[in-house]
Design brief:
It is a single chain. By secondary structure, the chain is an alpha/beta fold. The protein is built from six helices and eleven strands. The chain folds into two domains: 149 residues, Nucleotide-binding domain of ferredoxin-NADP reductase (FNR) module (Rossmann fold); 45 residues, Dihydroorotate dehydrogenase B (pyrk subunit), domain 3, CATH 2.10.240. The strands form three sheets. Strands 6-5-2-1-7-8-11 form a seven-stranded mixed β-sheet, sandwiched between helices. The protein has a two-stranded antiparallel sheet with strand order 3-4. Helix 3 packs parallel to helix 5. The protein binds FE2/S2 (inorganic) cluster. FE2/S2 (inorganic) cluster (FES) binds next to loops.
Length: 210
């Protein structure tokens, strides 16, 4: 086992309300990110945890989508999230314990879940926010490529920064084989970037057309 490698999510303190969108196997990375943000927001030892440079606590919202049963037993949330459609109450118990609000989406008819794609749930919530609130939002996403592309379009629609974690087949995972490259837009023109070491997290606008 080798790690950590590559470049992860970099939340910007000027955007203290991160919207985390995870789909399928992209759910666990969003939980890790939410845990890291929650630890910074309420450290048990304030001296041991770096605060963001404007001293603001993070207030993440995690939205998760799956068409097969979620890998945890969802329960009704006890954390109110204004702007989430009525009846969308299913949440992840682990995040509830951390005080991080979460909501679930699925087209499989699971109780308490948003009936639709997770990006549509994100759109409904973002559409409820005013300009000031939107100015505090940054989107982070991990999941299937069509979901990431939809997330990039969603971010563009609301003029929000957006980071996506890509998935690729990897032969070496240390930058040597170029088997995991993806086309990316750079300031100097198109380039091929290695997901294993140049990513897996990229600015969504450099990867997807919006
Ligand atoms: S897996 Fe070999 S360069 Fe990325």
């Amino acid at each position: 086992m080798l790690g950590p490698i590559g470049i992860g999510f970099v939340p910007h303190p000027q955007r203290p309300r991160p919207l985390l969108i995870g789909g399928g196997v992209g759910i666990p990375p969003m939980v890790f990110l939410a845990e890291a943000l929650a630890a910074q927001a309420s450290p048990s030892d304030p001296d041991s945890v770096p605060r963001n440079d404007i001293g603001t606590a993070w207030h993440p919202l995690v939205l998760m989508g799956s068409e097969i049963p979620f890998p945890f037993e969802a329960r009704p949330s006890t954390i109110l999230v204004p702007g989430v459609p009525d009846g969308v109450i299913a949440a992840m118990p682990l995040l509830e314990q951390l005080g991080v609000p979460s909501r679930l989406a699925s087209r499989a008819g699971f109780p308490g879940c948003f009936d639709g794609f997770v990006t549509e749930l994100g759109e409904a919530w973002l559409g409820s926010l005013d300009r000031d609130a939107l100015g505090q939002i940054e989107i982070f996403a991990c999941g299937p490529t069509p979901m990431l592309a939809a997330t990039a379009r969603l971010a563009a629609r609301f003029d929000l920064p957006c980071q996506v974690s890509l998935e690729e087949f990897m032969a070496c995972a240390v930058g040597g084989c170029a088997g995991c490259t993806v086309p990316v837009r750079t300031p100097t023109g198109p380039a091929m970037k290695r997901v294993c070491v140049d990513g897996p997290v990229f600015d969504a606008y450099t990867v997807f057309d919006t």
